[in-house]
Amino acid sequence: MSKKRQAATRADEIRQAIESDIFSGELRPGTKLDEESLAARFNLSRTPVREAILQLVYSGLVVKKPRQGAVVAPLDLHRMVQMFEVMSEVEGLCARYAARRMSGSEREALQGLHDTSREMCQARRLDEYYAVNHSFHEAIYSGSHNEVLNEMAHSLFARLAPYRRYQLNHPARVDESFREHGEVLDAILAADPDRAHAAMRKHVTIQADIFSEFVSIMR
User: Fold this and answer.
1) Which of 88, 144, 168, 197 has its C-alpha lying 20 to 30 A from 21's C-alpha?
2) Residue 208 class from Cβ within 10 Å (0-12 exposed, 13-18 middle, 19+ buried)?
3) Which stretches make up the HTH gntR-type domain (predicted)?
4) Same domain, 104 and 210
């Protein structure tokens, strides 16, 4: 593995650890993220720590403030709900176009990803399930054969990734996620654009009860 790839992997590991601390309530809104302390905690240089913080800033979980540096952001539930509303429409369109435009080989690859995710779901290997889940969505973005839509979907997914990952840690959510993927897949394989759009919108739409629990943790 190249040094650049190793640094990226370490940054991802640090980011995920900080995300976990934020969602568990260990890191409260307004808590300062000190690069030196984090580097010592993970026994790494400050470079991957700095990259991890930049990723968190991009997702909105962390903000940079003058004279304070990086701090855990206050939860803006209203904005998060709005982002999920837009995400559901964007991904719904991706699924609609994918149902019309995916090639035979692309449909087979999507089926293969779903089959792989079944194993992760049953074994409760959540990190691996999330990785395959991401690939499943990306395959549908690509399968839309619309570059503008693809770019929009990737950007929104990156912004909402921590919240989507959090949902998968909720009891039974991984089973629901897998079942919903199956509904999207069935519609795409059947070349049914309307059903694919509706199934994907349903899948992405924010779970009010899950995020109500999250809000109670953060307050």
Assistant:
1) 88
2) exposed
3) 8-75
4) yes
